[in-house]
């Protein structure tokens, strides 16, 4: 009778070990999948942040174009918008170079350089370069 109890005990311990090992493997797989999903989400949110920073900088350039039509000698300045702020510098010449550094409220920044030609009351953008997208710590 004692041999039967020892045999059942050994089978129970073996089954328990199998369950613990399988549970650990499944837990590791679930954690790995979660980390992968979080990484993809972080990259996606980062790309949205850079797009917002780029849109903000382009909006600041458009606002500066309107200002250059009204006042061709304008040297720029700072501009506060709902989703961030811009620092605008205008370098004279033909075409004028407009430099914009924009930072969004969610911590992303970009720098943009636009070459602008103003003929009468019609501004024309000759060239636009986005020089950087950086998350601000």
List the helices and strands and how they pair.
Elements: H1 2-70, E1 76-81, E2 84-91, E3 96-104, E4 108-119, E5 122-135
Largest sheet: 5 strands, antiparallel
**Tell me, what's the shape?**
rod-shaped
Tally of helical segments: 1
Residue stretches low in confidence (pLDDT < 50, at least 5 long) are none
Order of strands, main sheet, comes to 1-2-3-4-5
Rg over CA atoms:
30 Å
The percent range for helix content is 40-55%
**Strand count:** 5
SSE string, helices as H and strands as E: HEEEEE
Mean pLDDT: 75
Strand-residue proportion: 35-45%
Structural class: alpha+beta
Give a brief outline of the structure.
This protein is of the alpha+beta class and 137 residues long. It is built from one helix and five strands; from the N terminus they run αβββββ.
Which key phrases capture this entry?
5-stranded antiparallel β-sheet; 1 helix; 137 residues; alpha+beta; 5 strands
Question: What do these coordinates show?
Answer:
- The chain is of the alpha+beta class and 137 residues long.
- It has one helix and five strands.
- It has one helix spanning 2-70, and strands at residues 76-81, 84-91, 96-104, 108-119, 122-135.
- A five-stranded antiparallel β-sheet has the order 1-2-3-4-5, covered by helices on one side.
- A hairpin with a 2-residue loop joins strand 4 and strand 5 (122-135).
- It is rod-shaped and about 105 Å long.
- It starts with a helix and ends with a strand.
- The mean pLDDT is 75.
């Amino acid at each position: 009778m004692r041999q039967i109890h020892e045999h059942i005990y050994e089978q129970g311990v073996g089954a328990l070990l199998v369950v613990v090992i399988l549970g650990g493997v499944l837990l590791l797989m679930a954690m790995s999948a979660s980390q992968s999903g979080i990484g993809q989400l972080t990259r996606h949110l980062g790309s949205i942040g850079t797009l917002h920073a780029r849109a903000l900088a382009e909006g600041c350039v458009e606002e500066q174009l309107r200002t250059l039509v009204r006042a061709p000698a304008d040297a720029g300045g700072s501009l506060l918008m709902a989703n961030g702020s811009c620092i605008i510098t205008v370098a004279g010449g033909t075409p004028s170079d407009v430099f914009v550094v924009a930072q969004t409220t969610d911590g992303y920044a970009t720098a943009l350089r636009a070459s602008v030609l103003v003929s009468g009351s019609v501004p024309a953008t000759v060239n636009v370069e986005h020089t950087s997208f950086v998350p601000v710590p």
